Amino acid sequence: MARYWNEEIECMSREDMKKLQSERLVKQVKHVYENVPYYKKLMDEKGVTPDDIKGIEDLHKLPFLTKADLREAYPYGLLAKPLSDCVRIQSTSGTTGKRVVAFYTQNDIELWEDCCARAIVAVGGTNEDVCQVCYGYGLFTGGPGLNGGSHKVGCLTLPMSSGNTERQIQFMMDLGSTILCCTPSYAAYIGETLKEMGYKPEDNKLKAGIFGAEPWTEEMRREIEKSLGIKAYDIYGLTETSGPGVAFECEAQTGMHINEDNFIAEIIDPETGEVLPEGSKGELVFTSITKEAFPLLRYRTRDICVLSREKCSCGRTLVKMSKPMGRSDDMMIIRGVNVFPSQIETVLIEQGYSPNYLIEVDRVANVDTLDISVEMNADQLSDTVKDIQKKESELVAAIKTILGINPKVHLVSPKSIARSEGKAVRVVDKRKLHD
Ligand code: ADP
Ligand code: ZN
Q: Are residues 353 and 379 in the same domain?
């Protein structure tokens, strides 16, 4: 069984990869400068010309691009090819505001699908596999990206899209799906539904899942692996850089290899914009060095993570990114304390609860409030009010230990929190409604 989709690239020496990146960067900067007036202006304002960029060591001289730039330039302002050369648009899910659109030439699609093929092979996928894709199809990049990767690998592809969970399960069972691709929250929901339908984890033929598009914790991974009887792998990407497959997890399950032949990654201090040394935690910035139609240079993802060049047991030399712990704008500041939903998720699952929860933040009499609703397990339904209050207090104490602030915890009945078929909504911040 092939271990890599493209061994030459995935296991390339650091020196060769730097050389390849440098060559591509120099070409790309020229392409953008000549074809994207919006970015040319940013370069002119910074006093940088394409001649100043001789290799990746000069990357830091280029100006950043942000989501605000993308919105300002909407829809065509960052397009670098004539529309007649473009064959597709995709759009962000709009998790944090107005959508942005991205454009693709046929070659851009090929490269993107190639990245997804690497991800599928990395979890053991071959042309013997049945790959069920239940990421949303359409403008969202999840479905189309993995669909394309699955075709390239030669898997029998089930283009299910998201939703209609019982039908998903019927196809999974009837056709013997071996690889499942969806958001981790939807994978958890599928696992829960399988159990309700009376199936045991070993009843399905699944061996691996490729789950991404939203933050998820290691605890959630173990939960999904148990309920589906599989290995669960992470995949990362964003519409602005193509879609899923910018980075993918290998058998080591200790972070995602970034497809560095297409994307140069940097970690910066989100406050100052300063490039941080390897191994520091900060905001991930990507430069697309192969994209033709929508080639973003130094795009600030707002995702917070760490890069590592430690040798990986899988043999790949591509740099690894840690699971993003949430984006900088997912971070809530509650009574002056920085809180990520993932920290709360970790505690809940560790304490034996399901990953079905909702965080509500509000401000009452100038004080921030934090209310966490968590579904109780079926066996707690017979508990007395006193038992439930005791369990709520235990959760409050455990969360306080991690966050340093006291939340209110409400144990609610099973199934009362809406399940997600795509990206889960975990936080309702009502303060924003008042301000
Ligand atoms: P939107 O920004 O509207 O959600 P996208 O659908 O393009 O648009 O989503 C990209 C974002 O999704 C990333 O910037 C990141 O915050 C999140 N994301 C994608 N994959 C992962 C992952 N594996 N882990 C955590 N977050 C992820
Ligand atoms: Zn690896």
A: yes
